[in-house]
Amino acid sequence: MEINSFVKKRPFIISGPCSAESLIQINTIADQTHEYIDVFRAGIWKPRTNPDSFEGVGKVGLKWLNEIKSKYNIKVATEVGTAKHVDLCLDAKIDILWIGARTTVNPFYVQEIAEALKGVDIPVLVKNPVHPEISLWIGAFERLYKSGLHNLTAVHRGFYSYGSSAYRNDPKWEIPIELKRKFNDLPIICDASHIAGKQNLILEISQIAMDLDMNGLMLEVHSDPRSALSDSEQQITPKELQNILRSLIFRDGNLKTTEVKSRLLEIREKIDKLDEKLVFTLKDRENLVKEIARFKLEHGITIFQLDRWFEILKKRKNQAEQINLDKKMISDIFEEIHKFSIFTQTKIMK
Ligand code: PEP
Ligand code: MN
What we know:
The structure is a single chain. This protein is α/β, with parallel strands linked by helices. Bound molecules: phosphoenolpyruvate (PEP) and manganese (II) ion.
């Protein structure tokens, strides 16, 4: 694939609200951001998990986006999920289209969009599919490319993962890096907002993206995030956007350091996951300690039983020895666990 993307400047900034809510709302946001962003984004058809959620203003939003485009002389982008959306956007002269994560997962939809775009080399951003399957992401680029679309850009927005995590969508940085290795000249924009899911994590994710030499950022901005009709927890104010852009540090990237950093991140992510499990295990242990405390109370048994404590310590030290883990570390950790266990029980016995 010979990519000829419009993303040239670094970092390339695409910003705007998750959803266009009213002309006044997008106008206020554009007014406060247009000077330091490259593309103004706003969703008008919103693929929502829950049917009762705000599903976007629909085609009236195209008119509003056009007003922003001419008033601020800025390129505008919106999400398309069907051929009908594509036709409406082309008629309305929207500059850039993006395919959302829930659409990239479905080759039927991607094909339909690719066919509707035949003959118009409009820039298209393709978000990664919701789940971490790189071949679906690549397949989407190939379908668009075969339809004559060469102005392509990838948007990394993280991946759904079952269970709790600090981020809304797991970044799995190794996947966009693999994409870059395959398609050298395909720019990658990091959608730090959808990865983070929370305002306070956006800077750290954006910085990692810059350290990994990504080409730019997609950041959701709202003039009053708390009242936003979608993704209110992850939208930042125009002022916060400016602060984030000012705080980013740009280092010279080359493939070697990128690889080193991505490996480092991979290992750190694994450590974080284990630590998370450890904390959940401690919570489960605390619940059992409470249960045993209630039982002891009911049967008039004392809290502290030395024999039991020695038995616990002995078992865990033996286990440590068997798997070649420092016995002293294990006995120190269990001393602490035991201390808190007695504390938890005494609270219940009171
Ligand atoms: C969005 O950009 O507002 C959006 C819906 O994104 P995604 O497809 O990444 O969930
Ligand atoms: Mn959103």
